[in-house]
Amino acid sequence: MAEKFWSKQAIQELVKEHQFQSVDQVQATLRDMFKDVLEATLKAELDHPTRRHALAP
After folding, report:
1. Which residue among 7, 15, 25, 47 is the one 20 to 30 A from 33 at the CA level?
2. For the segment 1-41, what is each residue's pLDDT rounded down to a tens digit?
């Protein structure tokens, strides 16, 4: 079984702090929280030597 990333208490605090009114607000907050991680992951994947070779003309 996968390890929990956030505790139930941490999620409850996040919801309380942001006072979400819609699912769209939750999604936007999560995107903002993880954008740097996603950008770094994608950059690393695109910069990987085998990936660069595959994209070369």
Report:
1. 47
2. 567 778 999 889 988 999 999 999 999 998 898 899 889 98
Q: Which residues contact 45 (CB under 8 A, 6 or more apart)?
A: 51
- Amino acid 27: pLDDT: 92
- Two structure tokens written together for 37: 């991680």
By residue count, the chain amounts to 57
Side-chain half-sphere CA neighbours of 11 within 13 A: 6
In whole angstroms, what is the distance from residue 19 CA to residue 6 CA? 18
CA distance 31 to 36: 9
